[in-house]
Amino acid sequence: MRLMSRTLCACASWLALSLAAPAGATEPGVPPIPYQTRTLVNGLTLYWAVDKATPNVTVQVWYDVGGKDDPTQRSGFAHLFEHLMFKGTRDMPAEYMDRLTEDVGGFNNASTYPDFTNYYEVIPANHLQRLLWAEAERMGTLVVDQANFASERSVVKEELRLRVLASPYGRLFNYDLPQASFSVHPYQRAPIGSIADLNAATLTDVRAFHATYYRPDNAVLLVVGNFEPAQLNAWVDQYFSGLARPAIPIPRVTAVEPPRTGAKDVTTYGPNVPLPAVIMTFPAPAAADPDAPALQVASAILSSGKSSRLYHDLVYQQQLAADMVGEFDARQQPGLFIAGAILASGKTPDQGEAALLDELKRLRETPVSAAELARARNQLRASALGERETIEGRAFELGRAILLEGDAARANTDLDRLAQVSAADVQRVAIKYLDPAKRVTVRYLQQTATAPDVAGEPAVKSAATPAESGAAKPTQAAPPPPGAPVAAVLPKAAERTLPNGLRVIVAKTSDLPLVSAEVLIRRGAASDPAGLAGLTAFTADLLPQGTTHRSASEIAEEIEALGGSISSSAGYDASAVSLTVLADQLPKALPILAEVVRQPAFAQDEIDRLRQQDLDAITVGRKEPGALAGMAVPAVVFGAGPYGHPSDGTEQSLKRIDRAAITRQYQALYRPDDAVVVLTGDITPEQGFALVQSAFGDWRRPAAPLTPAPAARAPSGPKVVVIDLPGTGQAAVTLAAPSLRRSNPDYYAAATASAVLGGGYSARLNEEVRVKRGLSYGASSALDARREAGLFTARAQTKNQSADEVAGLMLNLEKNLGAAPLPEEELAARKASLVGGYGRSAATSAGLAEVLGRYATLGVDLSEVQSFTGKLEQVTAAATRRAAHELADPARTSLIIAGDAKLFAAELKKRYPNLVVIPAAKLDPSRPDLGAGPGLGSPK
User: Fold this and answer.
1) Contact of 579 with 643, CB cutoff 8 Å
2) In terms of domains, do 866 and 839 share one?
């Protein structure tokens, strides 16, 4: 993916062409996608669906080319080319897609899969014509020069290091699993490629690839959102009909994977494997095969949710696994059925393999129960509803149906097929495909010796790509102007306070039959007692793990049978239990949610089980540089204050937490007069208030008064810390500083300043570190404005050899953020990106529930939902500059780098002689000195 969390002849008038409506009914309660379609003479196929309820539109182009089509000895080429499509065209300078999308309040991205590559944008609806023009430009007149090619190839290498070499299980899932599972078919190659193959790619390869695959008869154009169909079709004719269909045929993969003749066992190794893994794969049919729906249901029964067999048996009951893996990986051509486990501490691969074989044997030999079958189908139905909440989700559903199954109608009719799957069907496909004699078993273990840095590249300084060497010269033909803006209509929240003090907030967001519910407690990890870091989060996490009436398994089974999911968590200022459920099942689900919040059992066996899971999660995090740096941030910035420890705790603090401490914390924090219930989705305020009154109305308010929230303490001084993780494939570079609280009147100016520095692809950090120098897959900054104090961070990951350079670039950009007046054009673009992102976050039921819950727990008036845009637009350049001086003050900024220290620490120490290096295994994030003692120094 491209982003940073990012792989003719003229036609007759469209009015004269027939329009195809989707065929077949869908699962009850899941509205079909009412698309229409036509094909241009040059072979380009257009699909569209109108939604007048949104102010936005998504434009997507899906090309029938993916990782399996990579040229010989050029693995990763389709993915590399995906990145290059954001360079220049005949009329667009490089990176101009970001000016047309992000800078007007939208976003763009792209992905490369084994079978296809898709490019997608969401923009305000009045910019539709401009995006159609831009996509036609990319299809027909792409221009890439040597400088941009080399720069973007460096970016792709950093993405590979991030996803593969720095991730504890990246090698397993990207390389080892496909290589072991396919012997002939190019599915055996990772779409992300390898460093060696990327180095071998040439500019000539790029031009040949574009000519071969990026053509109208190999593309599908999808448009969903607020527009007039007649105008859309006229623009499509205007910009796409002149693109010629090449005479040469499109090469297609004809390789056929031979049948497996026996079981195969493979053992592979990685340099930072925190817990061993065992994964099994079985040959499976293509996505369009009649057996695919039954295999999808079988996979859901095995691995979807906490009531699934693999989770319940391996993770929960036997405590054999820290996590489980399961998927029916359906592709254009025969794919895989996958089942596996990341083993818990102290468990062996032999135990994991035996347990997986037992589960698969049970699926083959015994029909699944009616309850399991219904639960799986409801989960799949809820998943489809969640996908259809957004315009981009609906377009994705159509695109996947077209590219994987060959028919857009399958996006609607596949739900019927899932509903018709029987227990006999599940057993039949399990017997047919999950044959133990045809399995491949991959064991993934820690290697005994530390691996060298896989990049194998010297530590050389980068050179910024000169502006004049971009892929295209100044624009020859300007893009069309935007049309009249379409105003966004955000839902208004209604609220009521029950006699017991419980605040209830309800907002109807759509008629799509989903509801999100959150119960929030206005206390979080800042309330953790000394020495018990993580107690509040641990208490919250235990709530769904059993009540006085239901076990953890019963809670999961009942909620998931209703097409729902339940989870809990705690940040620094609030704790939450969240529920998403099919709307017609809310009257059954909400009483269970109330029971979870009000009647937890805190059984000792659940405490012990959850503690071990959390310890295993920390073990995994300590092997990933980004997570490792994140562990150190709270103590480095806030010292011994209430925000100065990881909210999820540490190994030491988790081992000290006992049932008595959990019970005391629950009794102190969980009370209706310090709680909020938020309901959003397909529900009216009257319905919501009545349901909450029934479920929570008798929750008694304690006689004792509320205790005040912990006061913020003075933050600690800035530090320079290196956390040494030998053998990791990248270094995570983090700047961190204290910032303002959410109630500060300067919040909007500070948010704008943060966006200017690192709030998007075209912000300053990413422009300098990624676009100009190719040193990272992405660099960004964020402002976390909390109740008592805020946290400002800037982050990037890079190859270890470049860590010192990237740190210097980031510190200089931070230092210069407020040094000069901000250009109005830059300021307008960054504010537009904030407005657009906010609107999209509030466009789904779960997203709006999160926004309203955060406002309620931080003391922000709910009218901010409507006034957010206006307040942001009032921020001036002068106010942003003033806020930048406070926000990004180098005198308060700490530098934290987690990576293979031998490859960068010596160079870094020349600038920071008081730098402290801490081995990853000895890092103690609960201590202000991180376990390094008084020598923890500050930058000079």
Assistant:
1) no
2) yes
Closest to 648 in 3D by CA, of 602, 617, 607: 617
Q: From CA 552, how far away is CA 545, in angstroms rounded?
A: 4
d(CA 102, CA 125): 13
Number of domains in the chain: 4
Residue 693 has pLDDT above 80, yes or no: yes
Same domain, 737 and 687: no
Q: For the whole prediction, is pTM greater than 0.90?
A: yes
End-to-end, the C-alpha distance of the chain in Å comes to 38
On whether both 226 and 179 belong to a single domain, the answer is yes
Considering the domain architecture, whether residues 511 and 567 belong to the same structural domain is answered as yes
Output the six-digit token pair for 579. 């529920």
End-of-domain residue from the set 664, 696, 728: 696
The CATH number covering residue 595 comes to: 3.30.830.10
What would the pLDDT profile of 784-803 be if each residue is shown by its tens digit?
999 999 999 999 999 999 99
Residue 167 located in a structural domain: yes
The predicted-structure confidence for 671-687, as pLDDT tens digits, reads as follows: 999 999 999 999 999 99
Residue 581 and residue 728 share a domain: no
Same domain, 595 and 660: yes
What is the domain extent for residue 271?
A: 264-387+405-446
Q: How far apart are CA 208 and CA 504, in angstroms?
A: 60
Residue reference for tokens 């890079």: 798
Q: Cα–Cα distances in Å, from 737 out to 615, 625, 813? A: 28, 19, 15
Q: 289 and 151 in one domain? A: no
What would the 3-class secondary structure string for 625-667 be? HHHHHHHHHHHHHHCCCCCCCCCCCCHHHHHHCCHHHHHHHHH
CB 602 within 8 A of CB 540: no
Tokens of 495: 């609220």
Report residue 115 as tokens: 């079978």
Q: Domain check: are 498 and 437 in the same one?
A: no
Give φ, ψ of 760 to 5 degrees: 145, 175
**Rounded CA gap, 321 and 343, in Å?**
4
Structure tokens at 60: 């997507």
Rounded to 10 deg, the angle between the 877-887 and 747-758 helix axes is 80
What gap in Å lies between CA 905 and CA 723, rounded to an integer? Answer: 10
> How far is Cα of residue 626 from the mean position of the Cα atoms in its chain?
15
For the chain, percent helix, then strand, then coil, each to nearest 5? 45, 15, 40
Q: Can you tell me the distance from the alpha carbon of 74 to that of 197, in angstroms, rounded to the nearest whole number?
A: 5
